[in-house]
């Protein structure tokens, strides 16, 4: 009898520890806010130790709060054990054109980006005036001696025109503006004055358009920021445009060596770039690109592990859907561009590209008739797998961009 009692006691103790461990884990993982369509309750499926765990919110409140309203609810495990109190915003479904279309990116920076520092050979030896004054790779030059600069040519001209007198640079670093002053030096064997700076004022490339929202004319693409190739820093945006593009070749991805879609710009313009965000490129369209299909954008909690499709273009200009699997859904986490772990299963896409390659960033991910996300990164060691962002994250940024547009 005592042995049976001890077994039961240990079973109950371990069961309680497991339940409370799951509750604590889920509470830390889950965000504090959710969005649902009118009449829906919050329902989240997670996987813990290879077992499905479903958390639900208040059914009554979900059916009574109108679109545009908010309410508080407790997510519960099995309808009994409270896990976390969250705020729920009720909205109508947003329907967008799912694209998967290649587009050309022409981006112009705010100010001029410092991409390198190199010593200047002078009669007295090698020196670097800019570095000595505290200028760093990744800084943005906003002005020189009070004169705004927007191109690398302007920076070079003002440095050369200094005549060896002190110049003051207005810089921006991590959102903070400050000044750095130094005296340019004359290079050996030259009459020109130099500062020891390498700068860049624009970027261009090929990406994939994720969606177009005909209700407000905005688009979202790429799913991650455009970063400088030398510094790795997100490029600040002063303006830009997106143009039609076509894919004419593929470098197939291999383990340890990411592949790439080879593309070129076509004539014409599709629209303007407004924001180079941490989760993609956004702006307004003036021409309507070819799309794949119209569908609603899924809320984060509606995304599930399991079968899905990636919509992308690997030749020409027309997108196609390819089979994939969402292996993991991350509702929390610090990186907003890596919410999903995805794997390409379609034999045709794996044969053509090896899986996920550069240029596919922004390719829509669809599941159960809804746009759930976009491809953002490839796993270098396994090109058949990569990361994706929630489509709802991108839509929220696009909606903020729409609010920034001037009234007609």
What secondary-structure arrangement, pairings included, does this model have?
Blueprint: H1 2-29, E1 33-37, E2 43-48, E3 51-56, H2 59-64, E4 70-77, E5 81-91, E6 95-117, E7 120-122, E8 125-127, H3 129-132, E9 140-144, E10 147-148, H4 152-160, E11 167-173, E12 176-182, E13 185-186, E14 193-194, E15 197-213, E16 218-221, E17 237-251, E18 260-265, E19 271-277, E20 280-285, E21 293-296, E22 306-312, E23 320-329, E24 340-344, H5 347-353, E25 364-367, E26 370-379, E27 382-390, H6 391-404
Parallel strand pairs: 1-5
Antiparallel strand pairs: 2-3, 3-4, 4-5, 6-9, 6-15, 6-17, 6-21, 7-8, 9-10, 9-11, 11-12, 13-14, 15-16, 16-20, 17-18, 17-19, 19-20, 22-23, 22-25, 23-24, 24-27, 25-26, 26-27
What is shown here, in short?
This protein has six helices and 27 strands.
Count of DSSP-assigned helices: 6
> Helical amount among residues, as a percent range?
10-25%
Note the main sheet.
6 strands, antiparallel, barrel
Which ranges are low-confidence, i.e. pLDDT below 50, for 5 or more consecutive residues? Answer: 47-51
The radius of gyration over CA amounts to 26 Å
CATH architecture of the largest domain: Beta Barrel
Termini separation comes to: 82 Å
Output mean pLDDT.
84
Q: Determine the CATH topology of the largest domain.
A: Thrombin, subunit H
